[in-house]
């Protein structure tokens, strides 16, 4: 079970790096332009992902900065946002590397943004964290395609990463 989260952390870092490399080709105006997505722009959506990762990392580890809003604009500059993404992906990888089967099964209690309390096994929270990333990376991919055409959105499928790392080979 622990290996699953090491693999997801690796995939998460890989997919974010590919998405950010594609977003780096946008002009500052394209990066910030509201295109009608849930968080408006590429900038808004990437900030949302960083904000929510920080919220979940704070809930799980008790450390790090966490904004008080899901739509927090942590960084306006692409370079600053990209650097923060790399650092937080390293935190997620470190978290995955620290996991044990016992910790994954143990309950975690946290409050959501409205203050409601929840208790659930850590593995379910981690599944949400990685699934949430995938969901919003898909939105950014769509925005990149709208802005730059079909070739602007990089391949970020999990199976592509599995094939690259040879995880998908038959046993």
List keywords for this structure.
Four Helix Bundle (Hemerythrin (Met), subunit A), two-stranded antiparallel sheet, 2 strands
Largest sheet, if any?
2 strands, antiparallel
| Low-pLDDT regions | none
According to DSSP, the number of beta strands is 2
The average pLDDT is 95
CATH fold assignment: Four Helix Bundle (Hemerythrin (Met), subunit A)
CATH fourth-tier homologous superfamily = dinb family like domain
| Rg result | 16 Å
In the CATH hierarchy, the architecture is Up-down Bundle
Tell me what you see in this structure.
This protein is mostly helical and 171 residues long. The chain has one domain (2-164): Up-down Bundle (Four Helix Bundle (Hemerythrin (Met), subunit A)). 63% of the residues lie in helices and 6% in strands. The protein contains seven helices and two strands. A two-stranded antiparallel ribbon has the order 1-2. α1 packs antiparallel against α4, α1 packs parallel to α6 and α3 (42-61) runs parallel beside α4 (78-98). The longest helix has 27 residues, at 122-148.
Task: Describe the protein's topology.
Layout: H1 2-23, H2 28-32, H3 42-61, H4 78-98, H5 101-105, E1 107-111, E2 117-121, H6 122-148, H7 158-164
Helix pairs in contact: 1-4, 1-6, 3-4, 3-6
